Amino acid sequence: MSGIMDMVHLDTGLVDCAAYSPEVYVEELDRVFGRTWIFVGHVAQVPRPGDFVTGWIGETPVALVHGGDGAIRGFVNRCATSQRPFLAYDAGHLDRLTCPAHRRGYDTLGRRLGSEPADDAACLTPVPRLSVYGGLVFGSLAGSGETLEEHLGEARWYLDNYVLREDIGGLQLLPGVQRYRMPGNWKLLAENFAGDDYHVAITHASVLSLRAQQVEPRIINSPGRQATDPIFSVATGYRHGVPHGLLEVRVGDDFYNHDLMRAQTISPRAVDWVNTRKDAVDRRLAHLPAKPYSFHVGNLFPTFSIIGNGTSLEAVGLLVWHPRGPNETAVTQLGFVDAGAPLELQEQMAFALSHQQAAAGVFAPDDHENFERLAKSVQTAVARTVPFNYEMGLADEGRDVRPPEWQDPAWPGLVLPRFTELIQRDFYRYWMTLMTTGAGNGA
Ligand SMILES: [Fe+2]
To answer: Is the fold of 38-140 the same as that of 153-436?
Structure first.
């Protein structure tokens, strides 16, 4: 698309407001959402034949269906003949899929009931590619292109070790899906999770001070609790791949000790769990001179965000930012706890997640307020003359801040200071590449 090259200036970190315009939005539905891998659900949402869950790839409605043959398929949620969505609900269980408009029926493999098996036109349209990584299901509207594993790249290491943790039981899906709207362009919400750790202490100051004063004063103010261990941001795919950002990557024993102190207030089994998780990381990464204990938040390009796994006592929230116009975004949010954690801890984890970064939590509404103001601002004539500024850390562009004795290729990614906008710059570098090269992979 012509003009995009003038919107993103990697040398200065400036991004023109036109990147959030209605014209660009229409193009990126094809060039970004028609080409990349989008998270569409978790296998645990459809455990039995006949189970389904609906979602979107960009603005295209899709459905994950567990077929009568045991396979999980992705379909475009559109009746083969009437074009209307054939599944009108977020999730459910059906032996046959029936279009609510004219009651045309399909089996759970997507075949039109009552039609000849070879009659392709009567079948539901499959999502061209569906791929599963550790239970996470991603779909792509492009029939060819890089595989999901190539797309995830080195971010897989962070998923394996800090989110999925399949060797100690893996993730257990919490019931219910949150769906809510956020004002703001999808890119701004995605990069908020990908690279903006410096908004947290400011935007969420009231919550953090409340926590320090009332919820955990004994722990936070205890002797020796002054956290001194380093906290990093990490970019994977930097410059040459798909850009993913992982924030609050923590090295050292501060957070482990903090977890232990909190766990002691819960139960002996919670203490055991903290040690089990720590031992698992230490065992997996035994060869590394410095082992990250956790990371807290991140975004995998373009719109798949992760939050809450920063300590052994937090649930994992997985969020998808669905584009809904240049200034609006829909959110699908799933919650998970560690399957191996004791029940009393799982309950606390689930409670805390729903009260923090969630539709009715105390963090998401802070962000909502920020983005509501921003969404209004970018639509003004004045805003269109002032670019967004992502220059933080530009002087150290590309420099890995690990001390030499910590450097090890088995700890992948570019390790950055906690506060930098390198990840945002790289986000827009890749976005610009998608927007200006090729015509998509057949989407
Ligand atoms: Fe936030």
So the answer is: no
Long-range CB contact pairs, 142-151, < 8 A, 24+: 142/34, 142/35, 142/36, 142/440, 142/441, 142/442, 142/443, 143/441, 143/442, 144/441, 144/442, 145/35, 145/441, 146/242, 148/37, 151/36, 151/37, 151/242
Spacing, Cα 358 to ligand 1 middle (Å): 11
Could you tell me the distance, in angstroms and rounded to a whole number, from the CA of residue 370 to the centre of ligand 1?
Answer: 9
Contact partners, residue 383, CB within 8 Å, separation at least 6: 17, 377
CATH topology for the 38-140 domain: Rieske Iron-sulfur Protein (2.102.10)
CA 231–ligand 1 middle distance (angstroms):
17
pLDDT confidence band for 440 (50 / 70 / 90): very low
pLDDT in tens, 410-421: 999 999 999 999
Neighbours of ion ligand 1 (CB under 5 A): 367
Q: Residue 222: pLDDT above 80?
A: no
Residue 362 alpha carbon to ligand 1 centre in Å: 10
303-306-308 Cα angle (round to 5): 155
Report the separation in Å between the CA atom of 204 and the middle of ligand 1, taken as the mean of its atom positions: 7
Span from the CA of 70 to the centroid of ligand 1 (angstroms): 40
pLDDT in tens, 54-89: 999 999 999 999 999 999 999 999 988 888 899 999
CA of 363 to the centre of ligand 1 (A): 6
CA of 224 to the centre of ligand 1 (A): 28
Q: Which of 130, 439, 400, 154 is nearest to 301 (CA)?
A: 154
Residue 102 CB neighbours (<10 A): 11
**From ligand 1's centre to the CA of 14, what distance in Å?**
22
How large is the average pLDDT for residues 145-159? 98
CB-side neighbour CA atoms (13 Å) of 70:
0
pLDDT reported for residue 218: 59
Report pLDDT for 233.
Answer: 97
Kindly give the distance from the C-alpha atom of residue 113 to the centroid of ligand 1, in angstroms, as a whole number. Answer: 48
Average pLDDT, the chain: 92
pTM above 0.70, yes or no: yes
CATH topology of domain 153-436: Naphthalene 1,2-dioxygenase Alpha Subunit; Chain A, domain 1 (3.90.380)
Provide the residue ranges of all domains of the chain, joining segments of one domain with +. 38-140, 153-436
